[in-house]
Amino acid sequence: MMHSLNQVSMKGDFCWFFWVLGSIICLSAMGLVDSWMYGKWTPVLLNFFRFNFLTSGASFYGRHSWHWYFSQGLPAMAFTFLPFAMIGILWSKQWALAGLIAWVLALYSILGHKEFRSVLHFLFQRTAWFLIVVFSCLR
User: Fold this and answer.
1) In this structure, are residues 89 and 126 in contact, taking their beta carbons and an 8 Å threshold?
2) Torsion over CA: 58, 61, 66, 70 (sign)
3) How far is the C-alpha of 3 from the C-alpha of 1, rounded, in Å?
4) What is the pTM of this model?
5) At what angle do helices 123-138 and 81-92 cross, to 10 degrees?
6) Which of 76, 70, 88, 75 is nearest to 127 (CA)?
7) CA–CA dist 10, 18 (Å, integer)
């Protein structure tokens, strides 16, 4: 029993190490590329956070209510896929992925300025859940 607990701890440490190492490599590469393209050191992620969250600079381009992504953004983008995608979420039981998408949408909802392109990357997951329903109905 103790041996298996030790293996789990070592595996967790191993994954944690590579997550930290990968994050450092990616953030360093991103910082180098951004600095090269801007011609000076530019912390793009910090600038994005400061502009959107701390100074509300994006509100200059228009504001929507807090529920816009849930009431208008997702329904407009998913359109007829949305009911089937919701059923697909229930059938697939992928609660972690669905929870992550809901959490990101809730985080994006804090911002005053909202655009369709901010949630465009979720279209693939909704399509996958839609296909789960379609293929299970074809069986």
Assistant:
1) no
2) negative
3) 5
4) 0.56
5) 80
6) 88
7) 12
The model's pLDDT over 48-63, given as tens digits with 9 standing for 90+, comes to: 888 877 887 877 777 8
The answer to whether residues 14 and 20 touch, using CB atoms and an 8 Å cutoff, is: no
Contact of 108 with 119, CB cutoff 8 Å: yes
Euclidean distance between CA atoms 59 and 56, whole angstroms? 6
Instruction: Determine the Cα–Cα distance for residues 87 and 2; give it in Å rounded to an integer.
Output: 42
Across the chain, the runs of DSSP E, i.e. the strands, are none
pLDDT at 5: 44
The Cα 111–Cα 62 span in angstroms is 11
The single-letter code of the amino acid at 56 is S
Closest alpha carbon to 82 in 118, 136, 129: 129
| Residue 129 CA: distances (Å) to CA of 35, 84, 119 | 39, 7, 16
